[in-house]
Amino acid sequence: MQRLPTAMLSLAFLLTTFSASAQEKSVRPGINRPFRAVGAENFLKENYFVRFENAAPGDAKDEAITKDHKLIEGTWRVVSLEVNGNKAEGDDAKKLTIMNGADGSWTVFADGNQICKGTSTIDPTKEPKTIDFEITEGAGTGNKHLGIYELGEKTRRLCFGSPGKDRPTEFSAMAGSEHILVTFERAKEKVSHGSSDGS
Fold first, then answer.
1. Which of 13, 87, 190, 193 is the most exposed place for a label (fewest CB within 10 A)?
2. 3-state secondary structure of 10
């Protein structure tokens, strides 16, 4: 069996562990999309030739969306709320809960009674992450909002503008901004939800 020169082994290691973006122009000129090395094993098997697979940008975005939807799914309790510079009292804010589905659907409740519901689309690949949502039933039906969000396992923040307004660029709801800033915590206890007619 032919022994690989030390320099060749080093090259194989570098090609399979460095980021694809750093290799793109020097290893595979002319390819505009990101790519990834199949691996050192194939490097050895194929007469020292490294194969590359195209990694479609859409794949990474879809994976990021699925990941965030799974994190968002469930019931969240509002812990702070600021609207155009006005902060809601703590107890008032905590009366609000939101139930999120893994498909981007959501429903808002106040004291367990449904207030409104709607749909949303997210893009976790943006900085900050973006969310567009529309109210499809209840108070504000037909309104569309552009917002940004940040997400942890137990907490998340959402900042969005009034209908027809530009998307916020930071998590702030100062007076005159017409922005709404909400901080949520994942509900630890089971939340009782009534019907949309308050029953």
1. 190
2. helix
Class of domain 66-186: mainly beta
User: What is the C-alpha separation between 111 and 81, in angstroms, rounded?
Assistant: 16
3-state SS, one letter per residue, for the chain: CCCCCHHHHHHHHHHHHCCHHHHHHHHCCCCCCCEEECCHHHHHHCCCCCCEEECCHHHHHHHHHHHHHHHHCEEEEEEEEEECCEECCHHHHCCEEEEECCCCCEEEEECCEEEEEEEEEEECCCCCEEEEEEEEEECCCCCEEEEEEEECCCEEEEEEECCCCCCCCCCCCCCCCCEEEEEEEECCCCCCCCCCCCC
Q: Predicted confidence band at 78 (pLDDT cuts at 50, 70, 90)?
A: very high
Please check whether residue 147 is in contact with residue 160, taking contact to mean a CB–CB distance below 8 angstroms: yes
| The two structure tokens encoding residue 124 | 């976790």
pLDDT over 70, % of the chain: 66
- Rounded to two decimals, the pTM is 0.68
Q: Domain spans of the chain?
A: 6-55, 66-186
What's the chain's Rg over C-alpha atoms?
24
